[in-house]
Amino acid sequence: GNSVTQMEGPVTLSEEAFLTINCTYTATGYPSLFWYVQYPGEGLQLLLKATKADDKGSNKGFEATYRKETTSFHLEKGSVQVSDSAVYFCALLTQGGSEKLVFGKGMKLTVNP
Amino acid sequence: EAGVAQSPRYKIIEKRQSVAFWCNPISGHATLYWYQQILGQGPKLLIQFQNNGVVDDSQLPKDRFSAERLKGVDSTLKIQPAKLEDSAVYLCASRLTLRGAPPNVPPSTVYNEQFFGPGTRLTVL
């Protein structure tokens, strides 16, 4: 079946620290991969995506590379800010029939000044 | 452009009561989704509509949950009767859904983003 496993938190970092959130997936076929972010009190927002192997998604200083050989899509940011405090979800889009998003459990990040 | 609207934002009920949630998708979006997000977990798809038809309701607990999208625009999700384990945030999302794509183009290459509403937080006591 389709599933996403991501690093669980919560994680607390200092401003300007390096961030990595691990994400691996199990899927039938060749899914598209996503990172969503949920800021406090707000809805889910798409942060970045990648649709094929070796694609790199990037947005707001965050990056993630679709690694088919390791079935991974790790999220990285070189220097986090207080405004990056949020919950981050890794997700895949299933193929065939009704396309649907399958999410990981999410990881709460707190960045302190 | 207005986003996905949901109401109410918060609801507290006692077990065995009934509750309904409302979603107004982005104008023109043909596909509508309802997700359940239990605390500490990622969202789980409950039901997917394409216009006013159900595409996937395989994870909807049909003995107590129901949803409709009669005119292919707004949607309501109902729980009757509610249980303690239904306490969660209920998210609605919509998607444009590309029409007229060439038949040999994989859907993932013409992906239209799902836009999420703010959710309704349900507490069942």
Structural overview:
The complex is a heterodimer of chains A (113) and B (125). Chain A has strands at 3-6, 11-14, 19-21, 23-26, 32-38, 44-50, 56-59, 62-65, 75-77, 86-93, 101-103, 107-112. With 113 residues, chain A is mainly β. Chain A contains no helices and twelve strands. The mean pLDDT of chain A is 93. In chain A, a hairpin with a 5-residue loop joins strand 5 and strand 6 (44-50). In chain A, strands 2, 5, 6, 10, 11 and 12 form a six-stranded mixed sheet that branches. The radius of gyration of chain A is 14 Å and the shape is globular. Chain B is mainly β. Chain B contains no helices and eleven strands. In chain B, strand 7 (65-68) and strand 8 (75-79) form a beta hairpin. The model of chain B has no long low-confidence stretch (mean pLDDT 89). Classes of the chains: A mainly beta (113), B mainly beta (125). Chain A binds chain B through residues 4, 30-32, 41-46, 49, 51, 89, 91, 93, 95, 97-106, and chain B through 3-4, 33, 40-45, 48, 55-56, 91, 93, 106-109, 111, 113-114, 116-119.
SS elements, strand count of chain B: 11
Point out poorly predicted stretches of chain A: none
Give the strand content of chain B: 35-45%
Assembly level: heterodimer
Q: What separation lies between the terminal Cα atoms of chain B? A: 37 Å
Mean pLDDT of chain B, as a whole number? 89
Broad structural category of chain B: mainly beta
Comma- or semicolon-separated keywords:
heterodimer, A: 113 residues, 6-stranded mixed β-sheet, 12 strands, B: mainly beta, 7-stranded mixed β-sheet, 4-stranded antiparallel β-sheet, globular
Task: Briefly summarize what is shown.
The complex is a heterodimer of chains A (about 110) and B (about 120). Chain A has strands at about 5, 10-15, 20, 25, 30-40, 45-50, 55-60, 60-65, 75, 85-95, 100-105, 105-110.
